[in-house]
Amino acid sequence: MMILGIETSCDETAVALFDTDKGLLSHSLRSQVALHAPYGGVVPEIASRDHLRCLLPLIKKTLDEADIKKPDVIAYTAGPGLIGALMVGGGLANGLALAWNCKVIPIHHMEGHLLAPMLEEDKPKYPFLALLVSGGHSLLVAVNGLGSYELLGTTLDDAIGEAFDKVAKLLDLAYPGGPEIAKLAKKGDPEAYQFPRPMLKKPGLNFSFSGLKTAVMLVVRQAEKDGTIEKSKSDIAASFQKAAIDTLIGRTLKAAKIHNFERVVVAGGVGANIMLRKNLKASFDGTVFYPRHEFCTDNAAMIAIAGAYRLAEAQEVNEIEATARWSLESINT
Ligand code: KG4
Ligand code: ZN
């Protein structure tokens, strides 16, 4: 079966073709980063309009590259995400399915992230613990099998990617902030400031990042007053990154220990962070799996492979599904 994956939940328009026999055939992505950068964050209206402009040409390009006329099934991101952006992907997916007489599968964006490591040669076996860290989520999920997800922890306030983006804004760095912080941190001292490692001493497996963000803000304000901000920026970035990564790793190791996991999957945009990848690998006794860098951040290959795993649920074109807030556990089968 040939599955066309469509991802438009936020600020990337992405399309991929996955063959259940041959694997991933082609994938394309158009990033809207440059469009949103002047605003310091994603502007939903601009995102929807750009998906509308770019999605159809990208689908054509992806099909042409693989020399495929039409897929057997279309898998599209139905949520969670920006509602207008989701409606563009869902609308076009269903429209094309009607024209091509093929079936559709609405996919949960976080299930896509969760299954992204399955695109690699070295795939994790079930069960595994997933640390899903993106601009909208910080989740620890017990994955017992496909469609068997148990939420062990989530953030009580900001998502980790959001914290990276907000700290980057405080430091006058470009959007998205995660890669910019990571780049600047290379030149700084991670021990220069002792920022809090939120929640690590608290029971349970939830995260909280707003206190860390406030602690960074106070240091930035003081350095601005003292006129030392320019020379302190790399140290602040390095110390923040270390505190954030220590927190993620601390919680992940605790979850793995309590629930006896031998395998951990890290996915989502923040999963591209080199320090997180290196330090978790070094501190975890079992095996850590990551998708390649380009499949950590939003992409359609993960939506297409999620569609391949959920082929049995392919449905005739009916109602277009688009859900802004949608819990991962609600898709358990
Ligand atoms: O998964 P993703 O592409 O989109 C969402 O579903 O949110 O994640 C985007 C987030 C942004 O907050 C971005 O700053 C962060 O991932 N990010 C990083 C890195 N690369 C992207 N955060 C830390 N280090 C990175 N290298
Ligand atoms: Zn995402």
Structure description:
By secondary structure, this protein is an alpha/beta fold. It folds into 2 domains: 2-115 and 295-331, Nucleotidyltransferase, domain 5 (2-Layer Sandwich); 125-290, Nucleotidyltransferase, domain 5. The chain is built from 10 helices and 10 strands. It has helices at 33-36, 44-66, 83-100, 109-115, 160-170, 177-185, 210-226, 229-258, 274-283, 301-309; strands spanning 2-7, 12-19, 23-31, 73-79, 103-108, 128-133, 138-145, 148-153, 263-267, 287-289. Helix 2 runs parallel beside helix 3 and helix 7 packs antiparallel against helix 8. The mean pLDDT is 97. Bound molecules: 5'-O-[(R)-(carboxyoxy)(hydroxy)phosphoryl]adenosine and zinc ion (ZN). The site of zinc ion has 5 residues, from helix 4.
Q: Which CATH top level class of the largest domain fits?
A: Alpha Beta
Looking at the structure, the CATH topology of the largest domain is Nucleotidyltransferase, domain 5
Query: Quick one: biggest sheet?
Result: 5 strands, mixed
Strand order in space, largest sheet: 3-2-1-4-5
- Poorly predicted ranges (pLDDT <50, ≥5 residues)? none
Shape: globular
Q: What helical percentage do the residues reach? A: 40-55%
Distance between the termini: 22 Å
Mean pLDDT: 97
Count of DSSP H/I helices: 10
Residue share in β-strands: 15-25%
User: Which ligands does the model contain, each kind named once?
Assistant: 5'-O-[(R)-(carboxyoxy)(hydroxy)phosphoryl]adenosine, zinc ion
Classified in CATH, the superfamily of the largest domain is ATPase, nucleotide binding domain
Radius of gyration: 20 Å
Total DSSP E strands: 10
